[in-house]
Amino acid sequence: MAKIQKIEIQKVLGFRSSETIKASVFDEVGESAEAFVAFGKSEGKYEAKYLEPDKAVLKGDELTKLLYGFDLTDQAGIDWKMIEADGTFQKDVLGGNVMLGASVACAKLAAKTQKKELFAYLGGMVGQETIVYKPPKILFNIIEGGVHADNSLPIQEHLLISGKSSIKDQIVALDKVFDSLAVKFGDGAEFGDEGGFSYRFQSEDEVFSLINQQLENGDMVGIDAAANNIKNFDPEYYLGYYQKLLKEYPFLYFEDPFPEEGFDEYWQKLYAAIGDKALVVGDDLTVTNPKKLKEILDKKMINGIIIKPDQVGTLTETFETIKLARENNLKIAVSHRSQETNDDFLADLAVACNADFVKFGAFYQGERLAKYNRLLAIESQF
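Predicted structure:
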């Protein structure tokens, strides 16, 4: 089996020239694989720490010494060696971005040496030895607000969910809406961090009314409220507002409807009120961490979870969270970050874990398109 010989961390450019890192792993015959690591502008309190690129590049030699000679197929062994060496809950020492870069690059190289498609290799680690392909639903970020856009909308993401089945058909349908709105906004068309329109709407209701006009049979609507970032957040108001939205529009999806700490009773009230009709989804609440997920499973707060590997720092912990979510009948949405790269790994992860949803942004930026194109390439194999 191929073994780790060297790990390099380099500083590279990501979304809008933001600095991030690339991890490269080499085996004993000179084969290599690389992973680019994204990060978020809107972050949960308990996410793995992001080590600044200038400091991150210094960790390459340390990781080489730590992981030298490891069998590349021993993903759990590789990841737990890093976790133990770091010794902190939020990866303060090695950096969650450094650890994830190495973790993903090792998986990519292992798949490469075994001549397997990455999604098929990853599938074995999440209990899907034979991939049974089911197209995930695209959570399409059509209108942006919050910290991702230069407007006054408090809700961060306004999502359109196509009623079409295949990825190809969903993309065609969603692109039709995107082009229609681009014409409508004309010279006033500006874009947020994830490629959605950041037009200066007068109110949230104006946004939903506009989206509703674009819907075809079977289409649905969702939001990522990113409530942590809403100024002067009033939980009573939003508890009522979310239920109003569900009554007035074909809503399916409510992500981070309340802040992550101190609002358990409101999560529970919303779940009790709408959990049989729509999804209440944790992101900042759960940060892709199995320990954080275990803390809330018995509280009846969510029936869906966001998966962002950079929130926890290793693939092994990501897989553990996915398995725990599946065991508890939570819907899974594999998501990008606002500060993305052209790495398309997330598309393979989504197929590997048979994700119910993917959230990769709008069809406007190369960092988002890379992931959609990879999904199309994978779908063509089935």
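Summary: The first helix runs from residue 53 to 56.
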